[in-house]
Amino acid sequence: MFYHIKELQYRAKPERPDPVYARKLQEVLGGQYGEMSVMMQYLFQGFNCRAEQKYRDMLLDIGTEEIGHVEMLCTMIAQLLDGAPAAELDAAAQDPLLAAVLGGTNPQHLIVSGMGAAPTDSNGYPWNSKYIISSGNLLADFRANLNAESQGLVQVVRLYEQTTDPGIRDMLSFMISRDILHQNQWKAAIAEIEQMEGVIAPASFPRELTVEPATRQFLNLSEGEESSEGSWASGPLPDGTGHFEYVSKPVPQGGAPTLAQPADHQHSTLGSGPYIVNKGMESL
Amino acid sequence: MFYHIKELQYRAKPERPDPVYARKLQEVLGGQYGEMSVMMQYLFQGFNCRAEQKYRDMLLDIGTEEIGHVEMLCTMIAQLLDGAPAAELDAAAQDPLLAAVLGGTNPQHLIVSGMGAAPTDSNGYPWNSKYIISSGNLLADFRANLNAESQGLVQVVRLYEQTTDPGIRDMLSFMISRDILHQNQWKAAIAEIEQMEGVIAPASFPRELTVEPATRQFLNLSEGEESSEGSWASGPLPDGTGHFEYVSKPVPQGGAPTLAQPADHQHSTLGSGPYIVNKGMESL
Amino acid sequence: MFYHIKELQYRAKPERPDPVYARKLQEVLGGQYGEMSVMMQYLFQGFNCRAEQKYRDMLLDIGTEEIGHVEMLCTMIAQLLDGAPAAELDAAAQDPLLAAVLGGTNPQHLIVSGMGAAPTDSNGYPWNSKYIISSGNLLADFRANLNAESQGLVQVVRLYEQTTDPGIRDMLSFMISRDILHQNQWKAAIAEIEQMEGVIAPASFPRELTVEPATRQFLNLSEGEESSEGSWASGPLPDGTGHFEYVSKPVPQGGAPTLAQPADHQHSTLGSGPYIVNKGMESL
Amino acid sequence: MFYHIKELQYRAKPERPDPVYARKLQEVLGGQYGEMSVMMQYLFQGFNCRAEQKYRDMLLDIGTEEIGHVEMLCTMIAQLLDGAPAAELDAAAQDPLLAAVLGGTNPQHLIVSGMGAAPTDSNGYPWNSKYIISSGNLLADFRANLNAESQGLVQVVRLYEQTTDPGIRDMLSFMISRDILHQNQWKAAIAEIEQMEGVIAPASFPRELTVEPATRQFLNLSEGEESSEGSWASGPLPDGTGHFEYVSKPVPQGGAPTLAQPADHQHSTLGSGPYIVNKGMESL
Amino acid sequence: MFYHIKELQYRAKPERPDPVYARKLQEVLGGQYGEMSVMMQYLFQGFNCRAEQKYRDMLLDIGTEEIGHVEMLCTMIAQLLDGAPAAELDAAAQDPLLAAVLGGTNPQHLIVSGMGAAPTDSNGYPWNSKYIISSGNLLADFRANLNAESQGLVQVVRLYEQTTDPGIRDMLSFMISRDILHQNQWKAAIAEIEQMEGVIAPASFPRELTVEPATRQFLNLSEGEESSEGSWASGPLPDGTGHFEYVSKPVPQGGAPTLAQPADHQHSTLGSGPYIVNKGMESL
Amino acid sequence: MFYHIKELQYRAKPERPDPVYARKLQEVLGGQYGEMSVMMQYLFQGFNCRAEQKYRDMLLDIGTEEIGHVEMLCTMIAQLLDGAPAAELDAAAQDPLLAAVLGGTNPQHLIVSGMGAAPTDSNGYPWNSKYIISSGNLLADFRANLNAESQGLVQVVRLYEQTTDPGIRDMLSFMISRDILHQNQWKAAIAEIEQMEGVIAPASFPRELTVEPATRQFLNLSEGEESSEGSWASGPLPDGTGHFEYVSKPVPQGGAPTLAQPADHQHSTLGSGPYIVNKGMESL
Asked: Which domain of life, per UniProt (chains A, B, C, D, E, F) (predicted)?
């Protein structure tokens, strides 16, 4: 069960309105790697958590914090939209700034959401739950979380570069700081699990059931050998089971596939004249 | 530029048809973490790569391999669908096996795709490109890749548990082996980048512009203190900048937000009687 | 069965082209609350209607009218796009107006739809049928319809503010008028059903099976008591079963959840070493 | 800012696992009118609220409660999935119950979400934010909310009919009770706004700018006159501006549309031989 | 403007309910190539038509007919759902037929749409407007239409095979007949346009601006020469400009791409230490 | 199995950066009819192909070529984005060109994809697999392919008109040339299949099971007779079974539909007082 308090976790007040930036900021609210994504990802991982209590608790702590980040971003976006004009084209002919505003804003901010934040990305594409994952395997999920915080931080830093408004930068500094913390934290949690279970997720599939050479061979499927220069092509395997092997000219191991003729009841090509297979149930 | 050869990378031949399993196998072909996702993710990261050649080459090597995995899964699914009946309900009344088949198959395999693989997940939801990311930041992207291989492997292992067909298991063993390799390889590549740039993605945001306490405080936003027990709440920060601090009772740092009155031209609540703001351009 | 006549229901002719406005107008054609939505919602409710004939007839009357509104909007948009230039960037450097046009138009109008209307919203997001509902419960559905006409009218009024073209305003005036009528009409139809069945949809769930206090308690889940000031926190319940009760400090009524250990065949965390559960069918 | 406590708002414990019902219950978690929808709709309306404080507070109170409902449903679904077998087809041949389970379950519960709840509907379709609206016009939005609670309650009552498990019914009874309260509450809030602003949303468009007859005429666009029998075809208009008028044989008021020739640079039909319009910028 | 009459274009009455078949029939109502697709595709092409009147008229004639096909399918589906039980799992243990029904039905028919048709495909995926195209180029669009009728007919014939209910087959026979007519008709219309404009869509791009060899060379990008056996590898080009040329060993014509270093403000890999590019506007 | 070589199939190098054009070019990369669509459509048709080897081989040849086209477009887009500024609004006030850039670019190029190509269309809408079809019926599928190449070519020609950059035009000329070839080739392949099977897809449905008049009657469902003037309304049927018949005043052949009362367990309108149908299993 959840409670709300009226104060924001951190300040979210721009120095001046900026409807073009409001559109951009939507990316880290409702985009693929925005705050709605981490909020929902951590909450679902927490609600579904079957591991020991400290994991569930931690997931819900951070998920709950992220609801507050969504709140801050919505608040910021609403203020950035203050004063956005219900303008039309003729006026823009006189004014490059207005032209830029007209072109660069999201029309839905003025038509649909009443100068409020929308649950969409910077191109108006709606948030959807295929952005998130809760698999029940904590190592896999914590890697998803580390990825989400990494992609998210890259985007927030880029947005920081795209404004000099001190109020926006103040809020973004805070969000950058939390993303840095959260990267550190998922790194720590991952290390804790890898310590117990090893580095492959899931840990539990028996190695004797694998195709052993395939677990260590890097396949060079392009001409040229540049890819042999990396740590992924030689040296020890991080899971401690041996060494990478670089295969310069890989060859196929499966034969050429041959599919059976299409079933008659599918009326696929190449058919052989008019018929109905299923005249009644007798033909089953 | 790409070339194709007719042989498969590895065998993909089931012992017997199984249209219910064909539906399930769609998950790792066209689902959120299926082979289409890693194929497209690595290809786009490779095509967009601005870093040194060995990264681009490696990304395209593995992306090219994944096209071949999509090929293997399609081939397998088409064979699992061989013999799927164009059945109807009455027959199922006599036969629990047929009832299970009817209920558990994907009707689109028989109506839309002509007993071939579909570019969708196990519930018929189409693959879409919001499953993938190519950000230009290799550390963030390699974490996305490690996550994708981890989630993917968890799913393939679960699917391995859901069949005993030797032919399917043979192919899944190979895919499991490659996923193990790929996890190892992204681990190695990540270690290489972290060695150079540090563990935070992106590495380049100046620490003096952060809100420093926010970069180390774990906020306990739920009652109870279980979340304090993890490596994310005390001990050294993985990025080497200090130690985690556990905040048992976090308080808000931003005030309560107040938004301005709605603009008149928005006709939002609470309005004050009939009017048009924009009578012509004079009102701008 | 349907018939078409060539005349439009009402005039749809702009005074001059305006490709930026054409993009905006897409919102009320193919957006979440555009004319495609009410057209399809009323038609599906009509086709599925199991209530007395007058409801089905009315739903199909209005749904049929809405097909004609889609026709009017497409006609208007096609004319607004007349003369849109196949321009490029250099020219825009000389001309703020062209810059605004370039920035504010939908590129798909010139690349995909051949200067015709697209079945999308103002950001190019395609119309989809999750915008609509046909539940079989007329009270619920008429509320959906009243909502659709309310949201739609708010948007059309906002669009009216964003142009001064007399031809566009003429058409929008007509659409505003019909939306006003339709709001009135769904209000009347709702009142008719509520008269017969009461105000809760559906009417038929037995009250003795409810958790009675939960049917009247407003829960104040935030600090502060502002929410107690509304008609939703005290006074009579609109369904006539008693009075609202304001609960200032709500407490949870369910215990803390504990989920079972993850099933071994899921290979979730925390696993305990290599194994396969389903060796063959014997383990089921 | 938000806090979490570990106890659930109400009990969520089934008497026994039921993976088929778990799939169905997803509809009111992540479906078009599920709890994720009302949670996100009320939170966004609250965050964006520019009206007096009591409305914002109330919206966030209820939105916060709905986060807890999402938590309850996730908890219930995870328990319903306990014991779901990693079965295969052969076993189903012996056992109709297993056949039904196989056919009726969501394969993603066993492959993707690790026997946890998924943020999707009963067919595995992901939740997306086009299910929700926050327009800034409270009358329109409260009607959206009343609609959401009405559609949601109809669905929960139907789900109540589809199980006899006392634990599930206990939780559903609570949810039904809250939906009844919320319908009452939005009814009350709507009445409060209509009292101030009138029944048309938005209230502020000047009537003299409408096409007056169109604001009162019901158009009979189908043969037959059944639709004339309802309260929408005669009697007073709910907004108090006059009476409905029933038009038995409506005629078009706009002429037949004629669109201009396609622009040459579009290469549409009918073209007139090979050319490039835009040879360089001189042709603009 | 449109009118509706109450009679259906053709009979749509099943002999008996069949909720499993109702789910399947959704494919040709709301699927990728269902009746909603052709209805909307023809209407949009008609509304946007800038060619001579006979094309617009024809498009709207057929589009209007398709609205009536949507009506017939909805009517059929509603009747197939009559008598669908609000069952639960225990009963299925005794009854394979009920098990099949449970597994094979769409739960949303009983939870969401009140035993009415849904605007979705057979897996519950919503119809969306990216299924359709209206490009303004009639040759391209008529090919889209011929494709839609071809894919649609293949699906309807497959569905015909999957039932023996005389009422369903009666309706499907009619739809099959119309699809046959429509294939003939688009064939005729395409021939008419190709007669005037040639076989390449669009006709108007000057041949001297092409890369000439690329307009006739078939590239054999796989090992083996089977693809050389078809009419696409030798013989005359259908557009009359020469002959196909089979290239057995194609070589690349573009060099290896090299992308520039990432911009510093992107904070991509490999970065060079902490910095902010955009300190204020001076850095632009 | 696939191989990659580092050279591009053809040159892809713009003369100068142009981030606005980069956005537009996304349409033919990741849009409905972009290169990702043909690439995936041909690969899936090839992988699923059950017809003779020459068809499979040809489909995979062309599908493999299209992967290389995706590569070329990504390479081009990345270069067009070089030098895109991390600008903000104030600067735009001084500079119409910058205003146009700001307004006309895709913000995700600078926030999400690190100045690389995105797998989306020109409005940021993600590619999804419902753009493609693989039905198993070659005639239907080759028509889908001809349609895809026709729509695609229309779009590329329009894009050619929207730039004068010699480098972009060079690459587009090559793509236009390949699209011309591919239209020719699908025309040839279709002619080959029609020769064998006739012009209706599928060929195999028995004519005696159709409703014969419906296979030849064009229905004039609008007022006016313009549609009678085309080759679709009189003259021979392309499939050789007779002649078109023009029906000036079509009448319905099915009666008015009547649906049964709603089932009580659905709690639809009009209900008759409080009840639960399914008290336990006895009521089934």
From this structure: Bacteria
| A93-A96-A102 Cα angle (round to 5) | 80
Average pLDDT, chain E: 92
**Torsion-angle region of B93 (φ positive above 0: left; ψ -120 to 50: alpha; else: beta):** alpha
What is the DSSP-derived secondary structure letter of residue E67? H
Q: Are residues A100 and A216 in the same domain?
A: no
Residue of A nearest to C263 (CA): A50
C-alpha torsion sign, points E263, E267, E270, E274? positive
Which residue is associated with the tokens 């839309």? B112
Beta bridge partners of A218: A246
Secondary structure in 3-state letters for F50-77: CCCHHHHHHHHHHHHHHHHHHHHHHHHH
Give yes or no: residues C118 and C170 share one domain: yes
E27 touches chain B (CB under 8 A): yes
CA B52, CA B253: separation in Å to the nearest integer? 43
Residues A148 and A225 in one domain: no
Determine, for residues B137 and E222 on separate chains, whether the beta-carbon distance falls below 8 Å. no
Residue B2: which residues within 8 A CB-CB, separation 6 or more? B64, B67, E221, F2, F3, F4, F5, F64, F65, F67, F68, F71
Kindly report, residue by residue over E84-143, the tens digit of the pLDDT: 776 555 565 567 667 767 778 899 999 999 999 999 999 999 999 999 999 999 999 999
Instruction: Look at residue A166 and tell me whether its pLDDT is greater than 60.
Output: yes
Nearest CA in chain E to B125: E125
Q: Using an 8 Å Cβ cutoff, are F225 and F248 in contact?
A: yes
3-class DSSP state of B3: strand
The region that residue D222 occupies, defined by phi over 0 for left and psi between -120 and 50 for alpha, beta otherwise, is beta
How many structural domains is chain B composed of?
A: 2
Q: Is the pTM of this model over 0.90?
A: yes
Report CB contact under 8 Å: D3, A130: no
Q: Which helix (H) or strand (E) holds D58?
A: helix D53-80
Helices (H), C51-165: 53-80, 89-93, 96-104, 107-111, 138-161
Of D154, D277, D278, the CB nearest to F267: D154
Cβ distance F164 to D279 less than 8 Å, yes or no, reads: yes
Q: Look up the CATH number of the domain holding residue C158.
A: 1.20.1260.10
DSSP strand pairing (E217-219 vs E245-247): parallel
Average pLDDT for D111-131: 97
Q: With a CB-CB cutoff of 8 Å, which residues 40-79 of chain D face chain E? A: none
Distance CA D60, CA A4 (A): 7
Calculate the average pLDDT of chain D: 92
Domain assignment present for residue A71? The answer is yes
How far apart, in whole angstroms, are the C-alpha atoms of residue F64 and residue F67? 5
Taking 70 as the threshold, does the pLDDT of residue C256 lie above it? yes
The whole-angstrom separation of Cα B166 and Cα B161 is 12
Say how far apart CA B125 and CA B121 lie, in whole Å: 5
Asked if residue C270 is part of any domain, the answer here is no
Q: C-alpha distances in angstroms, F108 versus A136, B142, F132, F187? A: 31, 20, 25, 39
The residue-averaged pLDDT of C123-151 equals 98
- The one-letter code for the residue type at B212 is E
Mutate to test the interface with A, among E172, E267, E281, E284 (most CBs of A within 10 A): E267
Residue whose token pair is 């690389």: F116
In this structure, what token pair is assigned to residue F246? 């023009």
**Do D28 and D129 share a domain, yes or no?**
yes
The two structure tokens encoding residue A203: 């840990």
Alpha carbon separation from C137 to D29, D185, E86, E214, F33 (Å, rounded): 20, 20, 17, 60, 40
Within 10 angstroms of residue B225's Cβ, the number of other Cβ atoms is: 13
Alpha-carbon dihedral angle through residues A200, B231, D8, D180, given to the nearest 10 degrees: -70
Q: β-strands A217-219, A245-247: how paired?
A: parallel
